[in-house]
Amino acid sequence: MSSSTSGSTLQVCRECGGGAPIDVHFCPQCTKILSLGRHGDYFAFLGLPRKLNLDTADLERRFRDLSRQFHPDYFYNAAPAERRASLERSSYLNDAYRTLKDPIGRIEYLLKIEGLTGGASEREGSSRATVPPSLLEEVFALNEELDEIRGQRASGAPRDQIAARLERARRPIERKREEHERDVKALAVKWDAEGDRAILEALRDRILERNYISNLLDGIERELSA
Fold this sequence. Notes:
Elements: E1 10-12, E2 19-21, H1 42-45, H2 56-70, H3 80-100, H4 103-113, H5 120-129, H6 136-154, H7 159-194, H8 197-225
Helix pairs in contact: 2-3, 4-8, 5-8, 6-7, 7-8
């Protein structure tokens, strides 16, 4: 299992030249705020383990505490390097909190730092371009249904009739999404308990499938609003 911090890796204080663990925000020697420079990851930055089921109240508390410590108002009269460091850490903190408070964002970030996924655009592209094998049957059935619905619309079928058919087409996809949500939650619990890389690989596959399912549901919504 991956370590939650990188305590053996040091960052260097630009003020006094002292060393500090990577997840420390203020120099232990001179107490100055450290420039962002080298740092760990969102989990380490907030002092959290690399877990997928986090105590959201604890996450909120850590975010608020660090927000106060980094607030630029406290560094208004400080040296330019300290003011810059406070802005850098505040910005990074906001990104970390926004990512980790969302359960799916948390999984995607963990996959990224564990080297099991690319950026958001890559994930979206792969989820659109390639049908996951586990969804082939649903995708084939849905595409056939949508083709027939478009034909009905072109022939002037009543709007409520088309809407009712689209709602029926949505139901199996919604059930598939609910099934994936359960799988993702179970795998997250298993990762926290075991930390096995194979679990992360299974999570990666489920997230890609989940993204594809979301695309299918978006397609149905577009048909409903057409």
